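Q: Protein A?
A:
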Amino acid sequence: MNVAASRDGTRIAYESAGSGPPLILVDAAGHHRSNSPLGELAGLLAGRFTVHRYDRRGRGDSTDTPPYAPQREVEDLAALFGEVGGPVSLYGYSSGCLLALHAAAAGLDVHRLVLLEPPLDTADPAAARAFTVALRDLAGEEAVTFFLTSIGVPMEAVAGMRGTPHWEAMVAVAHTLAYDSMLSEATTAELLARVTTPTLVLQSAGSTDDLTGMAATTAALLPDATHRSLPGRWHQVPADVLAPVLVDFLR
């Protein structure tokens, strides 16, 4: 494990594997290196890239410095860029896509972006603010349950997660779910218009219309984006399907 120091002193833990151009994987809400589907993808990509995985602030082995602001997460990525060198490609999964977009819009040296189902919803800012407020008032299992059901995970699926290591890991970082909600609030059409980085927006053929619609909207709002659908389940594409697509686009 390596550590990068962010601008506000937050220690960002990361690990690196492979050789080749640098690629940073940006995780989804409630996930970090020890509780993430990105480990398998990193292994498949390590033959072509130097793949860096990190714990977003407040999760895993990274520290936290309140109060939260999306700009501070961009500064975390800037610290990683300083450690690994640039230009750097970014792969974002779910709300990790939004952070990758903020990094590109802020002028970080991003070579290319790949985004899997960014949860972009610019239609009702008031509802987004209310969602953040509700998350801040909850903690632990209540926060995780509220978050998952609100984004469309069926209650029976949530019930099946309870008591699993994945569930307990999400509960341990439940306070950071509001961070991702704030990140969503800050992701606007105006911000996307500033992202001139070549971008590949992906969606799963097994996802619901709301998720695929947001992927299509994101691609339409970006100045230089390609939009593709890949075989998969709800909000998931298998790593062995994703990896060759990333290789083709990033190389």
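Q: Protein B?
A:
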Amino acid sequence: APPPPGAGGGPGPVDVEQAVSLAVETLGGPIRQHLADDGVTLPAAPDPGVVVKAVRSGAPHRPCRRLAGAAPRISVVVCTRNRPGLLTACLDGLLGLRYENFEVVVVDNAPTDDGTRVAFTAAVGTDERFRYVVEPVPGLSSARNRGLAEASGEIIAYTDDDVRVDTDWLLGIARGFARRDDVACVTGLVGSADLATDIEQYFDAKVSWSTSCAPRVYDMDPANAPGPLHPFTAGVFGTGANLALRTETVRALGGFDTALGAGTKTRGGEDLDIFVRILLDGHALAYEPAALVWHSHRSDLEELSRQMFGYGSGLTAYIVKYLVDPATRRRVVAGIPGGLRHAKQLDSRTREIPTAPKPEIMRRLRTREMAGMLAGPALYLQARRRSARASARGAQQ
């Protein structure tokens, strides 16, 4: 994996001591202040070797004083479909969480066999914190909404089956909600589990899930706007792979839009949509890098091609939702030029990867994403009609 700037000089393994030195150099102020609040003094020039040795030796974990007494019950929801191998690794990470008051709900979305149930039972055994439920209606939003219905926590935290959570993930989420009383949504840093292939590096450069280690709170105050398309800037707020919401708030909003998301015609956009709805409803959204998870990117070209089509279709489907709404149409239209500039910047980042894929592969991936973007509006209208018919049938039963 490419090392951080100054931590090795080029592609190859990261020197851990150099990485620690870089972290202290760039983040030393906030680190020292946080440790001081916890009664710990960091030496003026800490020895990276000593720090690394302490971490690797499994030094006793000290809880963060800022969160003492502020540990709300959190319901973790993992939506999955026919990927028992990935789910097993995800559950292994969740079993290691250092947080006292949580539950895990695994939502098996329209399964075609019992592989997920078998993998769930083998992974968690009789641990009463973990529950398995089936959502027969296909689509990630339907699965997310089933998890919402099952949740007993004040906070509901979503992650994906191809994600491994950090042991202090839920502590980070709690920290995000504690930043302001009006925070109703927290997103976190999503690191790359592996960057061994050029395909994984391409995707990592394409998204912005791990580009910031600075916490931030967003709201509808123009002074806090991250760009001209606010609050519709795709990807700035985070991703559904690491997303937490106040349960009461998201229920009041009606849950996730079942015309958006993987497993529907639109293939994505449900997370971007919930971010916007949270903000437009007058709440704040906190990005909290301490809420850390690791995502396994697609390493197969065919799989990534399908994913890029879905990212493109989900993006424009979500934008069309707000274009057809008279209350938000003017704001979206005004922000389109800025949105196009933002997309161009993201595309240029993929060209700067030290070990970028061959030009023909990059053209193929960009073409698939563009094809998805062109198809997104029509797919959204089809999905919305299908969702409306399903709701009507449900109301008649």
